[in-house]
Amino acid sequence: MPGSVDTVKPDAAPPEAIKAVPVRHPGRWVAVAVLAVLAAMFVHMLVTNKAFQWSFIIDNAFRPNIVEGVRTTVLLTVLSMVIGVVIGVVLAIMRLSGNPILSGVAWLYTWFFRAVPRLVLAILFGNMGILYTKYHVGGVPFSEQVGDLLGVDMSGTLFSINANTFLTGFMAGLLALALSEGAYMAEIVRAGMLSVDPGQNEAAGALGMSRMQTLRRIVLPQAMRVIVPPTGNETIAMLKDTSLVAFVPVTNELFFQLKSVGDKSFNVFPMLVASCMWYLVLTSVLLVAQHYIERYFARGTALAGERRAGFRALGFGGGK
Amino acid sequence: MSEPDGAAKAAGTAGPMVKAEAVHKHFGRVEVLKGIDLEVASGEVMCVIGPSGSGKSTFLRCINHLEKIDAGRLWVNGHLMGYRQKGDKLYELRDKEVSAQRREIGMVFQRFNLFPHMTAMENVYEAPIRVRREGRGKARERAAALLERVGLGDRKDSYPSQLSGGQQQRVAIARALAMEPKLMLFDEPTSALDPELVGEVLEVMKQLARDGMTMVVVTHEMGFAREVGDSLVFMDDGVVVEEGTPRDVLADPRHQRTRDFLSKVL
User: Fold this and answer.
1) Domain range for residue A244?
2) Residue A26: inside a domain, yes or no?
3) Number of domains in chain A
4) Is residue A52 a contact partner of residue A58, using CB atoms and an 8 Å limit?
5) Residues of B in contact with A197 (CB under 8 A)
6) Does residue A32 lie in a domain region?
7) Which of A94, A174, B45, B236 is the most buried (most CB within 10 A)?
């Protein structure tokens, strides 16, 4: 074998750039052909099948009551997710704290709200008015009973709300969704917090930072990278679960409105298609939002740059 | 060159910076520290060597109460770490009080443990702002000066993932110094580094020693121990086997276990 090793000459011109024939991927083109035929068949069906009644869909999908339904659905989604995330963070912190009472309570909460189906919760909260006619906020427990015993009036409540006006409709639906979401978020946040390297806690502790400071400034921001993607999932699931509040009943919600148009006009199927499209649009908006949130929390990691390329890489151009 | 130096510096203050008395620590049924007695004078640089599993890192973590000791006593700068003693009774300190004790102890970790979501600057001024309630402007200024001091004046806005291991460890040192500690603990600060990056970190540590910082350094760098250390401690199996000036211990170890260990690493 000629075993001589070339030494690099500093003044030598750089070698010609490699122009190799790239690896061909015939399988991809076959797949594209098959998919194209299937897509054409689907579009053909959409266009030619009279049952779709596209003009009916377009005429009715933007009625004022349906736009009102979109507003309610979005509002319910956003509010219940915000409340759910807050509850989730608090529960996760309680669960991971060294305090056995706090972690026990957090476990109990998660146990209950994960066990009961959302639909049942929604109906249950809608019927809460049966338990009390009035809610006393700020009252001392058993104060009235004690007051009766002593023969004095001890209804020391700050203010009270009529349960039948407070806990019907929107509020009941919101509470059912938000409280149940809190239980799921608690597990997601807990997983996120556990994913942070314990060395981070030690480093913050060694600098004299308190537990709360460490949690807020060091652990949670890093946990967010793990928390955000499943939270996006939860938000999308929540968007769709808002249709459950129809059973509370909350009637100005998107799906109920779309379906009622369909029922009244005996055009059920077109309005179901319209529902699909509305939920697709809303979910797409959420996906874009999630993309930007993820990018924000990826700062400082190698992923921060790659994310930008993520959308482009979907095409065939960058295929490996 | 080192012994009288350390003694002279120590003469300035009353007691030792670190005093350990019969410190015991066990994890489950494994006894990791079996009675450590040590004193580190103010201004002294003490290097701790020993085979892995000898308890040297654990002892270091006991000094700032990252690990609770099971028996014995440990004082830093005259404060009993983690407890308050009233008569014969010991009372555990609250988290807040432990945090306050840790403020005067800087620690540098083997794996740097920088905060990855913050820039080098933010890593350095986070604790001064949150813990010492320093003004933002002043904290930034000091952080910039500290990064300059460890030779990273031009990498202020880099995230840890954009820095080499050596640079990260230097940021970690600057971060610890930002709390103006009286004692610095180094837990194998160069063990996770590529060989060519070890020098830059040791250089910063040497400068720190020259400036009179009290340091306890768990290390495998015998050259550093010989050159910078005022004292050298050899630990094995949870006990201090040998203690003396680095020259004496390295050149003429008295114990067989020390000899065995040194023959493997030198």
Assistant:
1) 61-313
2) no
3) 1
4) no
5) 113
6) no
7) B45
